[in-house]
Amino acid sequence: xxxxxxxxxxxxxxxxxxxxxxxxxxxxxxxxxxxxxxxxxxxxxxxxxxxxxxxxxxxxxxxxxxxxxxxxxxxxxxxxxxxxxxxxxxxxxxxxxxxxxxxxxxxxxxxxxxxxxxxxxxxxxxxxxxxxxxxxxxxxxxxxxxxxxxxxxxxxxxxxxxxxxxxxxxxxxxxxxxxxxxxxxxxxxxxxxxxxxxxxxxxxxxxxxxxxxxxxxxxxxxxxxxxxxxxxxxxxxxxxxxxxxxxxxxxxxxxxxxxxxxxxxxxxxxxxxxxxxxxxxxxxxxxxxxxxxxxxxxxxxxxxxxxxxxxxxxxxxxxxxxxxxxxxxxxxxxxxxxxxxxxxxxxxxxxxxxxxxxxxxxxxxxxxxxxxxxxxxxxxxxxxxxxxxxxxxxxxxxxxxxxxxxxxxxxxxxxxxxxxxxxxxxxxxxxxxxxxxxxxxxxxxxx
Length: 447
Hints:
single chain; alpha+beta; Resuscitation-promoting factor rpfb fold; SH3 type barrels; five-stranded antiparallel beta sheet; 16 helices; 21% strand; rod-shaped
């Protein structure tokens, strides 16, 4: 009967080896001769002679075994790994896919080529300044004013810098030594809603909304310092609160409530009203007549157009003559027109209508019509009287007047209505009557 061990193939040998791994044999010697004969066939007559298993067979088997192990078991595979686990590993692999495989070769290459350099440096560096913000109630709300520029400080810094492939990566500060301190930047921020509303600043011009008095303090019951008429301008000096402010009116300082002030930005026409008001407050019986009125040609037109008592439109048609005489001879043109109104009864007198003489110029009390001058037109008479008043009544002796002439001042008694009245008219109340006409004309500016 053939020996079964003689024809075992390599697969059977591997299977037996695997079973031996999982079911190791007892360490003690096996005494069962019959069991030993399972693996070895001894000749009972010659125990050292084995006809079934030759030495060459053993060598060949070992060689095949080594080759098989090299083929079926990688060098990193342990013999202790069980084939029974193959199915479990296969199942896990199905669920744990490596979607981001690492390229070991690239990682090694990149790290091998990386140039990492460290260097220690000492250098002067800037110390940034801070910015300080201060609330300022004397500035319009939200407006900023730079009070002081900031200055950058300096310091010596010792540090270790790290570079990779020429690119800065990080640094470690070792020490700092201050050279100069930074100086903070200072900015004021306005908080005043009053100033912001009227778009003004301290020192700007503002205007009275209505006639009121300047007060000695920020108290309505305090002493009055001066009366300021509607539309007149004042200079804003201080803003102690949002309710009161300090102003200057023609060099007189006092306090007024902010609610009684406005600005050119808030009330655009207030500037023109102020100009007119500034002219009107100077109108009094002591007004200086050897100066211009300060009125424009448009002002003259406004004054003389549609005068209620100018039935013949003489003054309306000749307002430019009064304006031109004022500019040419440095005389108040409204004063000149007031004389003409008074002397001609609004241009209705016989002398005015027949001789174009609105002033009764040259007349004597005894023969007014006969002795009066006759002019070719009203403008000629207006200019003649203007020259006469400037030369003989309104300026002191030697005053330079028109055409390189000087004032003779034969009848000079001061450049006022009363001074002219002294020698110009026999009526002692003449100055008051002429002044009333001047007021009538001036007041038409505010109509």
